[in-house]
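Hypothesis: this fold can be encoded by more than one sequence.
Test: take the structure tokens below, design a sequence, compare later.
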């Protein structure tokens, strides 16, 4: 595995359990004002239990040319992990700075624009040592995850049993900041 793909001790690999179509919803594309590598992306997820590493659109597919600046990050409702706090994807705007993860360490990049559009979505549910970590993403081959063997896998090719990169967390946030509270999320 190339050096840039070694994962720090906080990022882990969860086993994909379910991939379920959920219908049409609004997804968020983040266009950075920088070029991203194939292993860079954002940590996004449905709940505070954790986040999946959603990679940049840095590879060609049958339907899309590479867009080295873009991350198709998923549904507007998702948490976007930003080092020690979270934001909702819906809140991200052009002109801000965003934390990008590449498996070794975070880096800051400027956001050029944010694009929200209605698209068909799927829910990816994973298991990391009994904790369910999930994300809702567009059903498109431009949406990719980092597998344990350091290769990228598109949501259209992802299967139950695959192991993909995640960041486990604990629920309990208010306005993005960690709080001590009993909370249940699904």
């Amino acid at each position: 595995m190339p050096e840039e793909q070694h994962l720090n001790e906080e990022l882990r690999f969860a086993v994909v359990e379910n991939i379920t179509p959920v219908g049409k919803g609004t997804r968020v594309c983040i266009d950075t004002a920088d070029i991203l590598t194939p292993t860079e992306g954002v940590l996004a997820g449905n709940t505070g239990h954790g986040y999946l590493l959603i990679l940049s659109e840095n590879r060609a597919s049958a339907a899309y040319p590479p867009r080295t600046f873009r991350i198709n990050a998923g549904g507007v409702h998702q948490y976007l992990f930003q080092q020690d706090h979270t934001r909702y994807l819906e809140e991200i705007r052009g002109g801000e700075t965003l934390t990008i993860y590449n498996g070794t360490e975070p880096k800051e990049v400027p956001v050029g624009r944010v694009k929200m559009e209605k698209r068909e979505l799927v829910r990816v549910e994973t298991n990391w040592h009994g904790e369910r970590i999930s994300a809702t993403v567009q059903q498109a081959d431009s949406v990719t995850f980092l597998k344990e063997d350091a290769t990228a896998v598109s949501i259209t090719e992802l299967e139950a049993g695959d192991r993909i990169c995640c960041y486990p967390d604990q629920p309990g946030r208010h306005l993005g900041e960690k709080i001590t509270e009993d909370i249940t999320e699904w």
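The chain has one domain: 3-172. The first strand starts at residue 12 and ends at 32.
Hypothesis status: open.
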